[in-house]
Amino acid sequence: MASPRTITIIALSVALGLFFVFMGTIKLTPRLSRDAYNEMKRAYKSYVRALPVLKKMGVSSILLRKSIGALEVACGIVMTLVPGRPKDVANFLLLLLVLAVLFFHQLVGDPLKRYAHALVFGILLTCRLLIARQPEEQPPEKRILSVNGDEQPLIHEAAPEKGKMKVS
Q1: Residue 168's pLDDT band (cuts 50, 70, 90)
Q2: H-helix or E-strand containing 168?
Q3: CB 108 within 8 A of CB 47
Q4: How distant, in Å, are the alpha carbons of 45, 47, 72, 129 from that of 52?
Q5: Which stretches does DSSP call E strand in the chain?
Q6: Please, is 17 exposed, middle or buried when counting C-beta atoms within 10 Å of its C-beta (0-12, 13-18, 19+)?
Q7: Which of 50, 78, 124, 159 is most buried, taking the most CB atoms under 10 A from its CB?
Q8: What is the mean pLDDT of the chain?
C-alpha cells in the first residue's frame, strides 16, 4: 500500500497539473471560454503597459501571454503524466511563474479577488515541492542478536536512551 506521503504527492501533482493545463489553454486559445480568453488578453496588455522594460525588450502582450500559457501547459502535462524528478522541475518553474504573475497583479493594482487563485495555487505548489523533497521515512530496523538460540535485541537498543524512562 502506498504511503500517505506518496498519495498526497500524486493527488497534488495531478490536481495542479490539470489546473495549469486548463489555465494555460485559456491563455492560448478561446476554444474553452471566449470570455476568459478576452479577459486574459486585456490583463496581459495592462501588464506590459505597467512594465515598460518589457516593451523596450520587444516583448508584446501577445508574446508574454502565449509564452506563459505554453509554459503552463507544458509544465502541467509534466506534473500530471511524467514520473520522477521532472515533476519537481515543472513544480519549481510553475512556482516561479506564479510569483511573476503575483508581481504583475500587484504592479497594476488588481484587487485581491483577481489574484487570490494565484496565491492559493502558489501555496499548493510550495507544499507539493516541500513534501516531495522530504526524505521517505523508513521504519527503524530491529537488529537482533542470537545467543544460544535465543533472540535478544542488541544492548544499545534494549536500554532506554539517557534521560528517558522506558514505559511498558
Answers
A1: low
A2: none
A3: yes
A4: 11, 9, 24, 33
A5: 144-147, 150-153
A6: buried
A7: 78
A8: 87
pLDDT at 54: 86
Paired residues of 46 in beta bridges: none
Least confident window among 7-11, 37-41, 71-75, 157-161: 157-161
Segment 132-166, tens digit of pLDDT: 988 877 666 666 666 676 666 655 554 555 666 65
pTM: predicted TM-score of the whole model, two decimal places: 0.77
Dihedral over alpha carbons 4, 10, 14, 20 (to 10 degrees): 100
Q: Using an 8 Å Cβ cutoff, are 43 and 111 in contact?
A: no
- Which tens digits make up the pLDDT trace of 2-32? 888 889 999 999 999 999 999 999 999 999 9
110 closest CA partner among 6, 18, 165, 39:
39
**8 Å CB contact between 27 and 40:** yes
State the burial class of residue 127 (Cβ atoms within 10 Å of its Cβ: 0-12, 13-18, 19+): middle
Q: Which cell is 36 given? A: 476568459
For residue 103, give the nearest of 36, 40, 50, 27 by alpha carbon: 50
